[in-house]
Amino acid sequence: MLALRPNCECCDRDLPPESRDAMICSFECTFCADCATGVLAGACPNCGGELVRRPVRPAGKLTRFPASAERVVKAGGCAPALS
User: Fold this and answer.
1) Domain tally for the chain?
2) How far is it, in rounded angstroms, from Cα 27 to Cα 23?
3) Predicted model pTM
């Protein structure tokens, strides 16, 4: 099950579970759409994988399956993805 992390790892922007601006890689590294399409050019800076829109968990399921509260932020922001 997806963790639905609460923020962008680059700029620390809030990304609530219902956000359609959250982008993730296959390891669930999480970024806002602005960082993902801007400085990261669609690739995860941690693994080099593709960043795609994170699905939205139905509001009725969040009580039983809550989103993560753990914030992850890259020290110094983000550099372009690994090759």
Assistant:
1) 1
2) 11
3) 0.90
